Amino acid sequence: MALNAKATQEFVPIKEVRDGIVVLKNDELRAIVLANSVNLSLKSTDEQQATIMQFQNFLNTLDFSIQISIQSRRLDIRPYLLLLENRIKVQNEPLLKLQTREYIDFIKNFTDSVAIMTKNFFIVVPYTHTTLKSDSGIIDKIFSSKNKAEIKAAQQVAFEEKRSQLEERVSVIQQGLSRCGINSAQLGTEEVVEVFYKVFNPGEVEGKVRLE
Length: 212
Description:
This protein is an alpha+beta fold. It has 2 domains: 5-74 and 118-200, no CATH class; 76-115. Helices cover 52% and strands 18% of the residues. The chain has 7 helices and 6 strands. The protein has helices spanning 5-9, 45-61, 78-90, 94-113, 133-144, 148-179, 189-200; strands at 14-18, 21-24, 29-35, 67-74, 117-127, 184-186. Strands 1, 2, 3, 4, 5 and 6 form a 6-stranded antiparallel sheet that branches. The protein is extended and about 75 Å long.
């Protein structure tokens, strides 16, 4: 039996993605921060302990909840192989052509036997705007007397106010991560859409990494 498209969409709580901000159907906001990883095995024991303690202190200072999500995907090596194939075409030295061809064969054999994975680390930063239930009826009456343009303008002002509060939280997150030696960046609209596309299409391979 085929799934109803409308019923399927009901499982996705996202209403829209505006200016890099995820707006849920209940009007809560979410920002997504991409963070790099730190290889603790390359650090000394003291450095490892210092990094862990710094991260623990960072989490303890937060007065709001966050969600840490890790996406692990198989890296698509085909664009790299295509680049090497194009280089063979412009090479004049027979020895370089031979070495490049052997390298391509090695990469193909290696990736066929070993799955090369890439991991992306995301921090989801929430913001929930609390309102008194007793005020909802009054607000509805006020809006009912306004035209659509005025309602839209009021909604945009409310969104900007909530986004300002959310971006303050994002700034706190990024500063805390920086103190731990972790680089981070807030995702824009296209990047957020790409993240959720990959969440709902887990079979696709990873083609690129956005944060070094």
